[in-house]
Write a structure and sequence with these properties.
The chain is α+β, with helices and mostly antiparallel strands. Among the domains are: 236-353, DNA polymerase, Y-family, little finger domain (Dna Ligase, domain 1, 2-Layer Sandwich), CATH 3.30.1490; 379-388 and 402-456, SH3 type barrels, CATH 2.30.30. The protein is 34% helix and 22% strand. It is built from 15 helices and 17 strands. The chain has helices at residues 4-12, 37-40, 50-56, 67-84, 100-103, 109-127, 139-149, 162-166, 179-187, 193-199, 201-208, 210-220, 250-270, 303-314, 338-356, and strands at residues 21-24, 32-35, 61-63, 88-92, 95-98, 133-136, 154-156, 236-247, 274-284, 289-300, 323-334, 411-414, 418-426, 429-434, 443-448, 454-456, 481-484. The strands form five sheets. It has a five-stranded antiparallel β-sheet, with no helix packed on it. Strand 6 (133-136), helix 7 (139-149) and strand 7 form a beta-alpha-beta unit. The radius of gyration is 26 Å and the shape is globular. The two termini are 24 Å apart. The structure holds a DNA duplex (18 and 18 nucleotides).
DNA sequence: TCTGGGGTCCTCAAACTC
DNA sequence: TCTGGAGTTTGAGGACCC
């Protein structure tokens, strides 16, 4: 669960085991993605501004997230889950629901518990990390069980005991109750799940609206009929950047929007999608957030079309005062494009025309290029200088040798000293700790950032290649996975 | 010293269609 | 032919989740 990234880092870096570790954006506007249990003791928690975390835990290790590394571990775990059942619903990199009944691996509470324990052992053996398991008859309760099981445990909620268990709990335990709804309910005198159930459906619908009120009432009675869904269709694709310093220059804002549109389309295409609705998101200097959207006549994955739509949307937004975040998204996804349809229609028309030998010649009045950015006004203006740049977005991806960066926590290899990781960098120096997941805590050395003997490298496996003995490295608190179904 | 990124779903109002 | 009403689509914002 929530300490997943930190646990993975502790497993990879022996010197961090048992220490406070905070993973998140390290820029001036970064927030905590995950704090290790040691860091939580200082009051650090996820979504906290990084500056605040540093004040609370000045001696913690601060690392940039390495998503590709976490994704590899996640895939190993998901593979184990799929061995249990075809119905596996990933919630994130480190959490998933599994329908054990559908997998036919558990028929009662005893067999479910056995499956859960075996799974936890398998996760530890394969990844070197511990996971927590919640077992119950529905998703909501399985999730609550897994929260209770953390770290490194298993909780089974026996059928028939659910309401008793939920009654005294805070409404915030229920999925869908965040700070705003929690506050709303508190003002109505409702703080526990028991009080929620007592309030009755009508009252909850009145307070929270039909969908939310109804769903919450059912959950308060421990009723959750949501099935475990293995395949979920993506509904939208978006990219956004928060800038270290607010952008005031309108030309620069336009340039950034164009850049985001390009990135968004890259992601869209990589996923094999196209989309009809283009969304521009602007967070202004005062944190107020605006969205503007435009729905096209048909889906597109053309960078030019998305860029132009985003630029048009930007024209309706006042950015004087500065913007701290810009985003571009595409929704209304399809797996074909308007251009495909035009091409198809065109081919068909041509075929028919050839057959009938009656040429009409209308060059298919496509809306496609419509309006268009006039030769890209932003082109000049090289906006020189410091470029506040998006706040450290953390990708581990290949770094051009010319401008080598050394993000904290990333793996490196030195020609003489071997494998290690970046402990920090700045002022032309990079500090590396030389250790591996299987080694003892290593020593630290400092190099020039352009040292030719030092290069970025891929993460090392947390668990030594299988062999006789198989020492099972490491620990690190939990990587939870709720597992419902079962009896 | 504030508040990331990538999503989902819901609500509401206005515009549009039937 | 006009009109009112219901239903749908679009656009914007908010809440929530990990």
């Amino acid at each position: 669960m929530d300490a997943f990234y930190a646990s993975a880092e502790q497993a990879a870096k022996p010197s961090l085991r048992g220490k406070a570790v905070v993973v998140g954006g390290l820029g001036p506007r970064g927030v905590v993605a995950t704090a290790s249990y040691e860091a939580r003791r200082f009051g650090v928690h996820s979504a906290m501004p990084m500056g605040q975390a540093r004040r609370l835990a000045p001696n913690a290790a601060y690392l940039v997230p390495r998503f590709s590394f976490y994704r590899d571990i996640s895939e190993q775990v998901m593979r184990l889950l799929r061995e249990l059942s075809p119905l596996v619903e990933p919630l994130s990199l480190d959490e998933a629901f599994v329908d054990l009944e559908a997998g036919g691996v558990a028929s009662d509470e005893a067999s479910a518990r056995a499956v859960g324990e075996r799974l936890r052992a398998d996760i530890l053996r394969v990844t070197g990390l511990t996971g927590s398991v919640g077992l119950a008859v529905c998703k909501m309760l399985a999730k609550i069980g897994s929260e209770q099981a953390k770290p490194d445990g298993l909780v089974l909620i026996p059928a028939g005991t659910e309401r008793k268990l939920l009654e005294p709990m805070s409404v915030r335990i229920l999925p869908g109750v965040g700070p705003a709804t929690g506050d709303h309910l508190r003002r109505a005198g409702i703080t526990t799940v028991g009080e929620l159930a007592e309030a009755g459906e009508d009252e909850l619908v009145r307070l929270l609206g039909k969908a939310h009120g109804g769903a919450l009432y059912a959950m308060a009675l421990a009723r959750d009929e949501r099935p475990v869904v293995a395949e979920r269709d993506t509904k939208s694709v978006s990219v956004e950047d928060t800038y270290d310093v607010d952008i005031h220059d309108r030309v620069r804002v336009r340039m950034e929007v164009a850049r985001l549109a390009e990135r968004c389309v890259q992601r869209l295409r990589a996923a094999g999608h196209s989309g009809r609705t283009i969304v521009l998101k602007v967070r202004r200097f005062d944190f107020s957030t605006l969205t503007r959207s435009e729905t096209l006549r048909g889906p597109t994955d053309d960078p030019g079309v998305v860029r132009e739509a985003a630029a048009r949307l930007l024209e309706s937004v006042d950015t004087t005062g500065g913007v701290r975040l810009l985003g571009v998204g595409v929704s209304g996804l399809a797996d074909y494009t308007q251009e495909d349809l035009f091409a198809q229609a065109q081919a068909k028309a041509e075929a028919e025309a050839a057959e009938a030998a009656g040429a009409d010649g209308d060059p298919g009045a496509a809306q496609e290029g419509g309006g268009g950015l006039p030769a890209e006004g932003a082109g000049g203006e090289s906006v020189g200088g410091v470029e506040p740049g998006p706040a450290e977005s953390g990708g581990a991806e290949p770094v051009p040798p010319a401008e080598r960066r050394w993000p904290s926590g990333h793996d490196v290899r030195h020609a003489v000293h071997g494998a290690g990781w970046v402990q920090g960098s700045g002022l032309g120096r990079v500090t590396v700790r030389f250790e591996t997941p299987q080694s003892v805590p290593g020593r630290v050395r400092t190099f020039r950032t352009d040292d030719p003997e030092l290069e970025p490298s891929d993460p090392l496996p947390l668990v030594a290649a299988p062999g006789p003995g198989e020492g099972a490295a490491v620990v690190g608190p939990e990587a939870g996975l709720p597992v419902p179904g079962a009896g």
